Amino acid sequence: MHGLMMDTPLLISSLIRFADLNYPDREIVSVTADNPLHRYTYREAFARSRKLANALRKLGVEPGERVGTLAWNDYRHFELYYAISGSGMVCHTINPRLYPEQVSYIVNHAEDQYLFVDLLVMPLVEALWPTFKGVKGVVVLTNEASMPDSQIPNLMCYETLIADESDEFDWPEFDENTASALCYTSGTTGNPKGVLYSHRSTLLHAFAGGLPDVLGFSGHDTALMIVPMFHVNGWGIPFSSAIVGAKVVMPGPKMADGEVLAALMNTEQVTVASGVPTIWLALLAYLEASGEKIPSVQRVSVGGAACPRSIIEAFDQKHGITVHQGWGMTETSPLGTIFKVKPTMGELTKDELYDLQAKQGCGVFGIEMRITDENNEPLPWDGEAFGTLKVRGPWVIKDYFKLESVDNPLDEEGWFDTGDVATIDPHGVMQITDRTKDVIKSGGEWISSIDLENVAVGHPKVAEAAVIGRYHPKWTERPLLVVVLHENAELPKADMLAWFDGKVATWWKPNDVVVVDELPHTATGKVNKLGLREQFADYAFPDAD
Ligand code: ADP
What we know:
globular; alpha/beta; binds adenosine-5'-diphosphate; 24% strand; 9-stranded mixed β-sheet
C-alpha cells in the first residue's frame, strides 16, 4: 500500500521558486574578473536565471544535453547552476586547472553543446578550441566592454545574450531522477570519469548539508564559499544556502588570496567559510603576517584533503574559530562525513578535541559507511581496525557516465569502494589513513602517510609535506618524507626526524627526509603522490644496504 502523500518531484527549480519568494532581499556578493565587488539579491539572481533559461532554449539546447562551464565562484556561475539544471539540461562543471588534454577529453566525452567561460579562462579555451568536436559556441562570462579578441567563430557575450530575454520562464516539471549536473574526477591515472548527479540526489544532499551538525547553515549566516563551484557542486553550498536564505559571498578568481579573503570576511561579516586545507594555510599565513583579525567568522569547514592539526589549532587559538573537517569525494556529491562533537563524548580537553577534529568525522544521515577487510567482511568500529572504506546512499554514484555496465564501481552488495583506507571509532568518528594506492606497508603492517604528513606540517619551518612508501630491502617498504620549507628556512634532517619523537609510534618514523622546492599537485590542489613516487622511483634509503 502506498502512502497518500503528494508525489512532488524534488527539483532544483523548486529552490529557485522558494528562495525567490522567501528571501528576495538576501544578498549574493562576488568578486569577478570584471568587477571587484558585485552585489545583488536572490531575487535578481533568479530573475537573471530565468532570462538565461530562455536564452539557452533559443540556443537550441535540448533537455538532457550538456552545457559546460569553466568558471570561478561568482554570481554568473550561480545563475548557470540554476538555469541549466532547472530547465532540464545538464550543468557540466569543468575544472580549468585540469591538464589541457583532460579538459579537451572531458568536453568531447560529455558532448558539451556550449561552453560558458570565465574571461580569465579564455586563453585556455582559445588554445583548445580546434580540439573540441561538437561545441556549437562559447559564451564569455562578462559584459560587452570586456569581451576578448578571439578566433572562436561563435563567440558570445553573456550579458548581451541574456539582456533582451524575458524574465518570465515556466520551469518545467519532470522526474526527480533526471540528470542535473556532471562532474569529472580528476583521474590521476587513466581518463577522468564522469559522475552524473540527479535532481533528487542534489536536493537530498542539500537538505543534509544544511543540517546543524553538518554544514549547519541558517538564514542568519553569511557563507563564504571558497570551495570551487567547478568541482563537486561547491559542496552543494549554492543549494543549501538557498534553502535557508543564507547570504552568499564568492571570491571569484581570488580564492587563494589571503588578503582578499580576509577583506571579504570583514566587509561582508562572514560567519562561516568553507574550503580545502591549502586555502586555509594561505589565509592563516596572511593573518599572521598582517596581524589582521576576522572576528565575524565563527566556523570553518574543511575537506577534500586531510586537514593538519596545526590549522585547527591556529584557527582556535588565534581566532576563536571552530574547524569542522569533512570527508567526501566527487562520487559522493561530495558530503560523506563531518566532525561534530557528540554529547556522549563527555568532557574533552582541548588536546582531545583537536585530535578528534583532525579526523574526518561522523557519517551524515543518508550515507551508510563501513570498513571491510580483504574478504569484504565488515570490520569493527573500534578505532583500531583499518579497512577499505565503503559507502552507499542516495547521493552516492551507481555508475560512471557512459561507462554503465562497463566499469561497475559497486561491489556485489551494492557498496561503493571509495579507494580510501580508514578506521572508525566507537563514536562513529572515521579517520582516513590513506588512499588504497598510497598505503605504506612496512613489514606487513600499515603506516598512515596522512598521520605522518600532519605531524610534519605541524613543524613551524615546514610549509608542505608528503610521505610516500619506497622500497626497503628489510621491510619491503618504508616511509620517505618529502618536505617544502617556508621561505629562507633551513632544517637539518636530524631535527626534522626528531620532531616525530613522541608524536607517532617509533616504527612509523620516516627513514629519511628530502627537502624539495615544490611538490607536484593534482588539478584539485592535492599532492600528486603518483607523480611523487615517479620522481623518487630510483631513490634508495641510506640504511638500505
Ligand atoms: P579528486 O580525486 O578529483 O581530487 P575528489 O575530490 O573526489 O577528487 O577526491 C576525493 C578524495 O579526497 C577522497 O577519496 C579522499 O582520499 C580525499 N579526501 C577528501 N576529504 C578528505 C579529508 N578530509 N581527509 C583526507 N582525505 C580526504
